[in-house]
């Protein structure tokens, strides 16, 4: 098994604002993909994220407001099946720290390398959304390679 | 053991330009830290990278021009000791693909989460250096959190 791990710090005093950006349709659409359908504020609910070439359905499998969010991949690319995405939020001085984990990849395939870098870029989009009011969700996301 | 993996695609036809950016003092200073001392073009050589708060000494342990570069961490933070950094370059259409691996972390500590995100940011700086002639090395690097 292999995992993608990231850490960003968002300059804000409101952990609730960050939690909202992970658990509401408008929040998620503001940093990941503007084609987001579904709220993420109930355990068991499904959120549909669509991108140019495909997308993911996430099942909300854990919530502990305002510090923890867990998603299980319900639909998506073969390599994403049976993986879990874990969000932990905490305050540290002037920052809300986001510890991100995309857990349980079967193999460290080349697509996992791509997704790791792309997650970092989208986390910076989340940071920008909270700090400036404007993120860079798909389709205005920062491109990293020939897979986008 | 835990690994950091990334993939970027640099829009250039010159794999040599990317290899140079990983194996020369001026190249490395252009995207990682402007306080870089030492060339990376000989197996066994040491490159010293310094940042505001500290730094790393890398021993070049493998070179296969222009597709592979391997560094072993010779000095650095405790968590970096005995880790290895692996660069693989290959052409794919209009891009030179960089597969990056920072291997053999003992534990997936919070600092590893930070380094994973920060590596993505520095890889985007490498991409920018080659594509536009200008990277964002320390101290003008993009800040990601309260650890910088």
Automatic annotation (TrEMBL), chains A, B:
| First and last residue of the signal peptide | none
InterPro entries, alphabetized: ASHA1/2-like_C, START-like_dom_sf
Instruction: Report the residue ranges that make up the Activator of Hsp90 ATPase homologue 1/2-like C-terminal domain in this protein.
Output: 14-131
The organism sits in which domain of life?
Answer: Bacteria
Family from the record: Belongs to the AHA1 family.
Name listed for the protein in its UniProt record: Activator of Hsp90 ATPase homolog 1-like protein
């Amino acid at each position: 098994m292999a995992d993608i791990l990231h850490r960003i710090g968002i300059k804000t005093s409101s952990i609730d604002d960050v939690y909202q950006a992970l658990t509401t349709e408008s929040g998620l659409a503001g940093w990941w993909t503007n084609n987001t359908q579904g709220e993420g504020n109930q355990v068991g609910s499904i959120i549909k994220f669509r991108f140019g070439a495909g997308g993911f359905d996430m099942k909300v499998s854990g919530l502990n407001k305002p510090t923890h969010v867990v998603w299980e991949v319900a639909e998506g690319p073969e390599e994403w099946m049976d993986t879990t995405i874990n969000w932990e939020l905490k305050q540290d001085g002037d920052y809300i720290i986001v510890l991100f984990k995309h857990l349980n990849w079967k193999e460290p395939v080349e697509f996992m390398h791509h997704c790791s870098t792309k997650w970092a870029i989208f986390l910076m989009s989340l940071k920008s959304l909270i700090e400036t009011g404007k993120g860079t969700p798909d389709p205005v996301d920062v491109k990293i390679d020939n897979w986008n």
